[in-house]
Design brief:
- The protein contains seven helices and two strands; from the N terminus they run ααααααββα.
- It is mainly alpha-helical and 160 residues long.
- Strands 1-2 form a two-stranded antiparallel ribbon.
- α1 packs antiparallel against α2 and α1 crosses α3.
- The longest helix is centred in the middle third of the chain and has 27 residues.
């Protein structure tokens, strides 16, 4: 059993190194697609090289590996998109380690934050912007329903 934890750690180490190299070479466009394709390649390679393991051992190690890699991806996505993380970074950049509320609002005006999010949603096909109106696409509608379902199942009241 300990060897399966070790193998999951090795899979994560290989994945994180390859992830770093791929994104240094190719840039961050299509981050999630490239990340998931890389994870799939690492997992298929793992299965190929561990054919002698039982199905239960392979499944256990893969679920552990995928969980670790998913946590890693979520952390990276939060570093990129989290306004809270960005505010902490901005405060840390100042020598006195504090900012006033006005300084924060000047750095991150609410209208700019909303505009950036809408632009990203539009670029990823979740909404369509037309004459100052925001229309859900089929993809956006489906994701909205799934998010609403997950929130109701897990009792999550606030998001974003």
């Amino acid at each position: 059993m300990i060897s399966l934890f070790f193998q999951a750690g090795i899979v994560f180490l290989i994945y994180s190194i390859l992830h770093f190299v791929v994104f240094r070479i190719s840039g961050h466009k299509f981050f999630m697609v490239k990340s998931l394709m890389l994870l799939l390649a690492v997992i298929l390679t793992f299965i190929f090289y561990n054919r002698s393991l039982t199905l239960v051992q392979i499944a256990f190690s893969l679920f552990l590996s995928i969980g670790i890699c998913n946590s890693y991806l979520i952390f990276l996505i939060n570093l990129q998109n989290s306004i809270s993380f960005r505010m902490l970074k901005e405060i840390e950049l100042h020598s006195n380690l504090f900012l006033t509320e006005d300084q924060i609002f000047n750095l991150y005006p609410v209208d700019r934050i909303v505009f950036d999010r809408l632009t990203e949603l539009n670029a990823n096909g979740f909404v369509h912007l037309e004459n100052s109106e925001i229309h859900l696409t089929k993809k956006g509608y489906l994701y909205g329903k799934v998010i609403k379902l997950i929130q109701s199942v897990f009792g999550i009241e606030k998001s974003g």
